[in-house]
User: Fold these one by one.
Assistant:
Number 1:
Amino acid sequence: MSDTQTRTLKVDALARVEGEGALHVRVKGNIVKDVKFRIFEPPRFFEAFLQGRRFHEVPDITARICGICPIAYMLGASQAMEDALNIRVEGELQNLRRLIYCGEWIESHVLHAAMLHAPDFLGLDDALQIAKENPQLVTDALQLKKLGNDIMDLVGGRAVHPINMKVGGFYKAPKKAELETLLPTLDWALKTCREIALAFAQFDYPDFEYDYTCVSLQHPDEYAINRGTIISNRGLDIPLAQFFDHFGEEHVAHSNALQGKFKNGEPYLVGPIARYNNNFKQLSKNARKLAADCGLGPVVNNPYKSILVRMVETYYACEESMRIIEHYQRPGKPAVEITPGAGEGYGCTEAPRGICFHRYRLDEEGRVTLATIVPPTAQNQKQIETDLRGVVEQNLALGDDELTWRCEQTIRNYDPCISCATHFLKLTIERE
Amino acid sequence: MNDWLIIGIGNRLRRDDAVGPRVVDRLEKRGLQCQEHSGEGAGLISAWEAYPRVLLIDATRSDAKPGTIHQINAIEQTVPTDLFHYSSHQFGVAEAIEMARTLKRLPDQLWLVGIEGENFGYGEELTPQVNNVLDQAEQIILARIRA
């Protein structure tokens, strides 16, 4: 190929991601001129139509941002309202929140890792082909996903868009005996997660690393899922209220989703690898052993290995679910009582794809006057484009089909939730 | 007739996509075992797991006239993936059926009744041509499960 030849690689509708997006890459000779990760899913205007709504309606409305990760929205919104109204939710109510969140991690991580991302490493087009080659893997993955949904159903009253969660806690606390019905399946799930993770560890991983700025929650008592403060591996450590002092959102012409970035314009990473790198020591002993058995050190910088980190986190979520259920004592009251009032509050949880940040301002009657939601995929967009630029530069010798495939795989490392990001894929690689 | 599970697939707030749940409302009143489902593929395979005979009702989007009723014996024929509206994560009704076929997890009988929709925008009203075939769809399904 001559130095002046232009190559354009494009994917008009990215497969195996949630929502509608595209990729356009333009290369002149050996120089990557342009990488655009486009989100053309239409904007959804949640932040605008939340204004005027009463505080208690917000978790149920924001849940509709996503069918895969509704808990991230329900819980982030609830926390923000509780923060605004000076309410503390603790004890078994907080444990139930962690349990239902573990359910969301299990169903979301397994769907992505086994059904949507694994085909990339096996050279297969979709999960149906995996089912033909390895029916046991897909049967197990479906069963694991069902377990996640069953947890959400038992605690939340429904597997998708649960109806039992509210500001202050729950409408009804589940009985211990109901939760205990999950224990035999959770026991099976631990063994199965481990087997799947070890099988995925045998994949051939592209040789690409990046020195990520990892942003995640951290909590002194636990591997942060459902609560915490915001930290990075570069020394950032801030309460939620200071989020907008350090992070910003930028509108770029090629995306209907705002792009998250540091105030200085630098990209950052949220999601499984960020959490793992920041909070590795807080994983359970067995989860850390599984990571080691998969060949992972305490810091992962190869984004393709996110599939392994997802399986380690799934394993951990199963362990946590067992622990919570075994120690559960049904609380006397399913929720903390709320008196509406004015205030501003912040909420943030670790959605399967990374931190999902909420801010709301309420008037005296508890009506929303300002709503800001910063979903994980919006925050990862700029890092995805940065990864793609590096991956294309490193793999210019590949033919267009192979390079396009590698780019799509790179995007799927992030398990992007495009619908969430637009409250955000198509691929175009242009070689000049 | 009582060993059939009927699953109405769709979103009630996206106009003609609601046709599956709307037909299920009628069948439920007749005492039949019914479920409403979003059409998410993995969940769908789990939903029918315990049932030997299953009938799915969903809105379709092909080139047919609105209100056209398609009937597919999913045990005997492959389900075309371009017939159905649902696409999130690209694992919907047709993919679920083909996945279950590969995994040998299909029920003994599986019928798919598709009703061609026209408008999948926001709202609760069905297109008149779709609304007009609710009776006919109900009768076709009753005849099917009595057969």
Number 2:
Amino acid sequence: MGKEANEINTSTRVEYVPRVGELEGWCSGCRICETICSMYNEGISNPKISRIKIISWEPSIDVPIVCKQCVEPLCAKSCPVEAFKKNDNGILEVDQELCIGCGACVESCPFGAITVNPITGKMSKCNLCGGQPLCIEYCPADVIKLMTSKLRETEKAEEWAKVLQKQKEIAGKKAKEQCAGGE
Amino acid sequence: MAKHGYGGKILRIDLTEQKATIDCLPSEYYEMYLGGRGFNSRLLFDMAGPQTDPLSPEAPLIFAPGALHGTPVPTASRTTATIKNVLSGGHGDSHGGGFIGSEIKYAGYDVVIITGKAEKPVWLMINDEKVDFCDASDLWGKKTKETQEAIRKKLPSKKVQIACIGPAGENLVKYAVITDGVATFGRTGVGAVMGSKNLKALVVYGTGGITIHDPSRLLKAIKEYNNIVKQDPYLIPAVTFGSTRFMWHRVKYGVHGACNWRLGEFDWEGLSPEIFREKHAVKATSCPMCPVRCRRDMMIREGEHKGEYTKVEWESIARSMTMGITDSIDLIRVIGAFNEMGLDIESAGDTIAFAMECFEKGILTKEDFDGLSPAFGDAELILKIIKMITYRQGIGNLLADGCYRASLAIGKGSEKYAMHIKGVEVTAADPRGMPVRAVSYATSTRGSDHLRSNPYVEEMATPEEAELMFGSREAADLKGVAGKGRMLKWSEDLVTIGDLLGLCKWAFYRSATMEYLCDKGLRLAAEFYSAVTGREMTGEELMLAAERVYNIEKAFNVRTGFRKKDDTIPERFFTEPIKGGPGDGNIVERNKFNTILEEYYEARGWDPSTGLQTRAKLEQLGLSEIKNVLEKDQREKNTIMLV
Amino acid sequence: MKIIVRILPPVINDQNEFVVELAEGSSVSDLIDKTTQLLGDKKNVLVNEEKKLMPAWRVFLNDRLLDSSNYFKTSLVQGDTVVFLLALAGG
């Protein structure tokens, strides 16, 4: 992981990064992240109030969903009572005193990453546990990472560059063959 | 009564009256039995007796999540479903590693007790304190997956957990299962009990949470556990191969139990761990909270049945070999059918193998099978028999009662092909050549079972460790006798801890060395319990609680009539040698079996000559109430039940 | 002489079958030492801290299960196959 990923800034987030070619490289659906998140942040263990959530369907598909820590957070913009406030680390959190549980943020978040507490009806979102998210630390499959968009940008660009290079090589080879055939 | 780690309440549901009552357990139950199987075994003892018909309305169906289930403790995923054993008539329970148990706890309950019988099929919706009895007439007849899907469609929240039965449970097949979509409560006929109550599904949604006494201590212990997982060679291949990895062991020892427990040599290459990994495994999946991830959905990727998939665990493969299946695609189809119908693969596999051998021997004929000629390994035929069993058609009606009862009905010498202990079909590996494994199947309190104990300790211990712990170096030798009874007692108590706390018997109670095993199974288990509940416990105290629970189950079995003569294994293992393979010619030697059995009784503090419990032992364990019940029975029935 | 070694289940991802070169007259104990060396930092899955083979590893010489007290005495010959099998009993 690059240095910038460890610095807390508004674009650092918990990201699902499966190792696509491996059977063991996917979220296994164990829910350790959910129970640890709820225990650490809410004081009780129950996946329903975890800020990271695993969405599952058959056969054997499990995908972790968690706040993207957007630079222009739609959740905060939609909040009528301005309950979204930056904490000391610069991470947006929901002030439980101010939150009225209207659900505007749930509607506006494109990723379904806001968590609704089923008892209080109020909202919460990932605050990166003060910089070292416990979900990452305890993930047995090692598939959730602390990421910045900048780092992902480079990774994705590198992946695509390799594909592009291969395409160009194939195209070049084809062109050459055609030239040879034309003679 | 808020207790760290627990839900605190219990829920009693009467299906006849359609009434739910919220209640509390006596606080000494928490102290003495910890949770899960511990609560259940005591409650069953309190609620059912020798006269209770397991499928009658008054017989209870009890669910209890393990004490640590619902918390982040690694592998804490097990829930116990307890009944009066449909197959044996004695103590019965089954354990599942899914999400239904944690949801029960989030709803606030440590135990859910279901009694009575609904007039028409119902499903239950438990939403915290609210319990609804919903009409299940549209669900009745549906297979397990269809049932799950249909219920989910009815409900606004996707986060509910559902435990349901398939058609087999509805038709009271004596080895029907309850499944929660992820895991299955497989053994002893729990699904039949649910079906007998006209209960199609139990649906739970819990909004509460479990408090943890000391989260940072818990997190530290989780790290310690995770470190062991990374180092223990026993667990490393579990991640890559899941439970399919057991095949290598079976092959090298020749203990397949193939073709109704006859052959030690088997055409296994089509079922190799590599084939399942490369051709069928979807990905590494896990039970709740488990870092080991040995669960697998297996999918057929080509051919006529492309796209079909089902869960395949080791026992599915083992019992497929008992039915003679040699091809992985056949296996996935057959196991898929068992799962869909809601049948216990272990009992059903043995029962079908029994029927096939009866046909082979001319005891059953084509006419008995509606013109079919069953043969070992014929998947199409097995699929047809599965249907006949599920819907109790033709010979299926007999086979649906298990191989023991079927053999009694068929007669003609078929009894010797029925592989059961106390009426419950034999599981796991062939015990011939490994005497303590045979004894461990026989002493299990729920009928034949390889998970009631952990005799595999003999392969983990060094001779020095064996001498220190069990008084003889022989205890570390597969063929040894001395010390094995003590080892068996110790290992039964050890894995019972897993059922009390809800920990996995594979990931928590198997290891490559005794050091890892004791470190995890005793020290860390106690550390987890102490950190979560705030009640300081040591490994020894956990062992004591486990011993208590084992004794309650034993007492229940004694009340229902089981004696020393029933602590035995099918005659075939004593008299018929394994055919072929590395274990060719092995049998279970009767004298070794008896010596180990008596040493075991002695280690348990029971009477070695009768196998009965002693007053002194029950009192020492704080089980005077249990003792009094036995005393009373003894007086009334004029038979000896206690020494 | 050359001895074929297999480790089951494959706990060492990419190397489960290999050929070990040993001096004539070597015993199974010598083979364990040599295999341990070859495994490098992954040796901990095979041996404990005292560098002894963990009891759960069963040794098969040409498909015959060996008694752990006899490793010293059992000598190997060219072309022997030795399987280290992790005890994975149960169901």
Number 3:
Amino acid sequence: MATTAVDAPAAPAPPPRRNRSRLTLRNTFIGWTFILPNFIGFAVLTLVPVITLFYLAFTSWNAFGQANWIGLENFQRLLTDGTFHTALINTGYYAVLHIPLTLAVSLGLALLLNHKMRGIAFFRTVAFFPYITSIVAIAVVWNMLFSPDSGPINQFLMALGIDNPPGWTTSATWSMPAVVLTSVWREMGYYMLLFLAGLQAIPRELYEAARVDGAHAIQRFWNVTVPSLRPTTFFVTVILTIQSFKVLDLILVMTDGGPGTSTLVLAQYIYRKGFEENDFGYASAVAVVLFFICLGLTVVQFLLNKRKEV
Amino acid sequence: MKRTMLTGAAALAAAALTLTACSGGDDTAGGGGDTGDASNVDTITLAGWSLATTPEFQVLADAYNEQNPDVTVELQEYDATEYDTQMIADLAAGSAPDMYVLKNLKNFVTYEDGGQLLDLSDIEVSDEVNGVDAYTVDGATYAIPYRQDAWYLYYNKDLFDQAGIDYPDGSWTWDDYAATAEELTEALGGDALGTYQHSWQSTLQGFANAQDPDADVLSGEWEYLVPWYERIVELQDAGAQMDFGAVTTNSVTYQSQFGTQQAAMMPMGSWYVATLLAQQDSGDAEEFNWGFAPAPQLDASTTENPVTFADPTGIGINPAVDADVAAAAKDFLAFVASEDAASALAEIGITPAITNDGVTETYFSIEGVPTDELSQFAFSTHDVRPENPVSADTATLQNILSDAHSAILSGTVSPADGIAEAMDRAQSEVLG
């Protein structure tokens, strides 16, 4: 509400007074009918569970009977829970590797596939393919590729003269990079598509003007492409950040958090506590923490973006 | 403003839903007692999973119906992997069937503690039925076991002959087993490995917890596991057992390892007998001579009545049913605990909760089952302990041990360090 109040002065001249309330009412009504089907689904399947979650986070509940109110006990437990800390660090580690890598790779792909050339549709489809492939199939195949002794990746590395190639998903040190590589490969196509759309919206005149001014390709990229892509980059970064912190499926099927706890992430920890150990109150508390991490990071990104805009 | 109103309404609705959801589980007093009249009931429902490939529920239902033509047991299908999650949701929502199978013993405590199982102490169960203890809490029984698997040592007779090594004789300790695995690997020279232990934590921890006198999962004192891990790490290093990393990265299945003669031995549960027979029949597994021996023991003192492990599988009654249905369901469960039911299950290769002479005879009359003396001994004579103790902490401790399992076997930490780390976690997260 506060933002609305701040934004108000910037609004254009007030509409004519007559019929204003009726017209607004009608417009609002029409607006609501448009979003209602979606909103009902959202309310029933997302909003209500989320609100319930906030309540459950302050209780001890094993799925049956009464959820007992225990106040902040779950959150106090989080402070001393070593595995939760491991999961938190692992999630951060995943995000720090995954976000810049995916951004760079998908932008690179988009630039590459933004030229006019033969078979462009084919290449774009190929790049998008991993995104629509079943995650289980991806996990199985990449696990085989990463196999320490018989996998093609390590055989290739050994052929290059690396005597002691990493153990990938069987090594606590390399399992996270292995998962990140797989997820970058999987998601690059989707973000490439967003970047492609952004690239095609950049007016050609800007490039022509830059060329007239004598800018070479790299200068044109940094001074025309990057600034013009800012809205897209911002959107992609926000989505990527949220996705990275919520990562679950790939890790669940690829490493199941192992070896040891080396790839255990927050979402999986929530799943374990809730659905494997039936400790729904505590799982909800972890979920609340994850929610606030995502919310906090998104707000920070919005603020940073706003500052750049000015 | 309208937005505020709507958010407010949604929040109210949510709060109302939350409250109703939380009070849903209260009125579960239901059936119970002996007041119900089973003759008023003509259909009772039972939950099962993957009905097309898991015939045991239908077998029980049909065998019961044969003796009690007035009552039909109707099956309600659930997903095999998400069984417990779905069942918990259905019980909480009041839409679960009259009776449900306790697929995993480790979740029994959730149902029992949550008041989702009717007290079945008044059903008469003979002493022959294995696994009842696992479902007994403070003297009251909450489920009737119908099958009680046990882990054996499967071995490929052809590969043993090829290597010129004697078959297991039922007197093996784990050290004998490991030594033979290395000898086999050498003698078979690349045709097959000596043994295959699947990547599950139970292939190691199940035996250790059942056989080791110091074993106590709930204590969080797990030093006793260290020598068990050292033995298997040695087997891996010697190349007599497939590397843990190779198993997980290549999604290796135990059925293919033993079924296509990639390994000469394999510790595995009794359910594999029926699977292997079916796969040899369908061509998924090769044709070869095999048998199963009692699981190797910690020392020679227990070879008379070998100690092994496996959880029982039992059926409990949903306490939300009315008294009549409860009476009918109890009658069904009394049948489940009978030798007739056990024989019906043995006919399809299931290891029932009763393994007396009659049932043993039925089981070994299945075509293709190895009928040598040692296999019969392994089936009929053993002291089978549950894989996990029944406690609210079991699931959490098992998860910690599972992390240690993958860390040690992948070579990330030494057995001693891995177990020490797990013990620290158990202390700080569960027991402390």
Number 4:
Amino acid sequence: MLTRLLKADLARGFAVSLSLTVLIALAAALVTAGTSLITGTVTSIGRLSAHARVPDLIQMHAGQADPGEIDTWAASRDDIVEHQVIKTLRVSKQTLTIAGTNQADSYTEAAFVTSPEHFDLLLGDGDAPVDPAPGEVALPVHYQAIGIAEVGDMVTVDTGDWSTSLRVVGFFRDAQMNAQMIPSKRLVVSTEDFAVMEDHLGDTEYLVEFILADASASDTVINDYRAAGLPSTGIAVTALQIRLINSLSTMLIAAVAVLVAILLVAVAVLALRYTVLASLEIDLPQIAVLRAIGAPPGRIGRLYLLKYLVLALAGGIAGCLAGYPLSSALGAPTRLYLGAPPATWESIAMPVVLTAGMVGVTVGFVALTLRRIGAVSVVEVLRRGAGDGMQSRRHWRLSRSRLLPVQQWLGLRAALRPTNALLLGVITLCTFTMALPTGVATTLDDPSLATYLGTGQADLRIDASTGSQDLSAAVSAVERTLTADSRVTKHTTIARRDYQMPASDGSWSSVLIDIGDHDAFPMSYISGRGPSTLEEISLSYSRAEESGVGVGDTVTVRSPAGDRSLKVTGIYQDITNNGLTAKALFDDDAPTLWMTIYADIDDSYVISAVAADLRASLPGVQVTGMNEYASQLFGATAAQVRTVAAMACTVALALTFLITTVFVVLVLAREESQVGILRALGSTRHDIAGQYVTRLGLLAAAGVGLGLLLSATMGERAIGLLLGTRGAPAVQLLPDPWLTWLIIPTMVLLTVAGAAGLTMHRLKTMTLAIID
Amino acid sequence: MTDAATARSPHLPAQSSPAVLRARNLSKHYGDARVLDGLDLDIDRGQFVAVMGPSGSGKSTFLHCLSGMTRPSGGSVLLRDTDLTALDERALAALRLEHFGLVFQQPHFMSTLCLLDNVLLPGFLSRRRPREEVTARGRMLLERMGIADLADADVTEVSGGQLQRAGICRALINEAAVLFADEPTGALNSATAARILDVFGEIHVRGTTIVMVTHDAKVALRADRVLVLVDGGVEEDLLLGHYREDQSAERLVRVSAALNRQSV
């Protein structure tokens, strides 16, 4: 009996049942895929870190170093379990060619190493450390992932007076520099080839690596290390930072999948509630009759619950099954970069358990809604009939309308009813879901992004770093060349040095200070201004937060020469170098990490030509267009965000379609008698369709408008909060106007129109039989 | 002419009669069930016709076919020279809007509109006259029906009789040539029903053609002409002439006799 009733009910509302099932399936697929991705990424990172034995602390050092000194210092400490000093040979981009492609324009900075033996292992196939023979080279999987090289390709280094060619024999996972967004990449060669290269590639950098007894004590160790005057011209990185950066890209997609899934579950619950209430209203006479003949409300409720349980289970199972291939597709880069996650019972059971929980929550909400059956007044329903439960609105009188056609007036008034909140809410959310990630993606592609990089807007940046070359000579050469070039309108040189500054808790930590003329390429400040005297300093947002100071306060800067008190004149946004930077004018003898020369070119069309000329005439320095610099720095992130934006758009449009379908079908079922009356009075189906087009059009337009408004206000604030932790709290989204204001609204409106067009066919099958 | 003789006469007036509605060989069937079966009938302009018959005799179907709410399976329905069966949906809707008024047994109203707006709805839909004029006419009709004070009331706030009177106002807002009413007093108590019938009488006096389905002989005796349908055909066609209250008893006897003959 129950099965028969259920079948009849499902057949009657097929479109609604199908839409709800698809909605639940979509949510379940995203829950499954998101959970699976997160557990997969976490276990993969854990596994890779364990196999590769990632160091707890790494101090970079450019230039020459005496490993013996470090050995002695490390041996004297109980908190250092193991240590090693890895020598790397940096190769300038112009001299490196991989598989026939010169790497001059590449974002990645390659350095040759030999395979580490004790820890920080570079793992090839079967998790064995790579060990190329003479004449061979092993590359990080990144080169394979972006399709630059394959096994058998040749890697050539040609400095002009010396060259060597090595055959690619395999790829490895570098737990330390794996992530796409880390520009440094290690290329592994044999000890023999490395020895030859040392004679010709003089630009060395050391990685001083430690495994600590207590990984959380890395701050103390690094401060003591530096205090001991050991080689430390570069930055220090901890294992935690390595794990974070490794997980960031995959986790970003997984987190968005889970967030979208939560959004879908919320919408599914709302849609189900709406459907259940609408069905109850339509079925009210039957429910009243069942109640009148003595059927207990609980049993009637179970009858309805069974239907939604069947839908939720069907959707849940279908979604769960679809979720695994989806997670497999989304997780392909993770597997490549981090290795296939081991199959554990958590990785299999967690997605299933969470999806089952999601189905349970959905059905639970239906059960709550169904408790209303008990509140149905039998006598009242049987006496007055079901009706459509709608009341007139006092302030809206057709008799006062003078111009608007009747159907449009009816549509407008219906659009303002609270029962439309479901559709309005969904369209608003979907537009928001589409506009925000799209806005972030276009922002990352926008040249004015330099605002958040802690620099003024210049056309070119030329980086010269310490190493074997004479830094001041290299910079002088650059300055001479720029002065002589008539296309260069102005240029300035900024030195970057590492100092110590106290945090708000009193401990000292590293700060990178830019020293030079900051007025040449003025930048925008969140508050205050740049330094104008030797006693002034401006701080990045994160640095100011960490030190707990604001404009007008005084901070102490410590260098080997002594402490210096400086007045804070301004706060700016910077997301580079963990956001911990500063700008000042004072000059002392502290070692320079690297120097950057900024330059403006008179004609923006010749920037790349000037850059090419400078590269040719100034080997050993890096010349980058600022636009290119920003896009390369964010290239990997921007690609991730683009994937997320595409995913969000697809899901949002599918959701808009489904909910519009459910909404229109239910509204037409609910308003069948009203449609019948209008037709009996002489309105054509076409006229009545006009009423619904007006109503849906207004709702869709309002939803799109609200969604865009939310994205521009709350969305920007949310991104600001997120980027605030990275150093740019006052981030402004720079959406592409065509995309945000035209293409996204058009896509949403077309989707609503498509769904409405398909479902409004039902108007054709409605007869006047209702008016008997 | 005896009642029996009248009943057996053809239902077509002489050629010169000013028929406003004509049905020719009208039939309607649902699957194998024949509800109307080759029915011929002329209704004169200004005539008040009551359609009676037992349950399932095809009264309502006949009314729906005449008013263009249902398409017949065969035959034709002519409003003056216009064949309703040849019209498409749009033209048929326009015809219902401009020329016909409909009063239903159950008060079918737009629940989201107040009483006055429900009355004005067909007037605004037709766009034949300025809205101010339609509104003034709507208020006048409500006034005439004695429910002017309920103009702004919700349809859920008024009684069945008041709703039925509002329904008649709505049917008259476009000055319909023909008013169709399906059991307009069926859901009302006798006092309210009597008031509604007085209203129909007034409308008829002003020259509107009325076709009314009823199962109540006391209602039917108000009409000029009473048709008794049995199994989809007209079995009795009584011409009672204009209603006069002092002849009520005599008219009731004639209608009851016709119904008795058909075992209704």
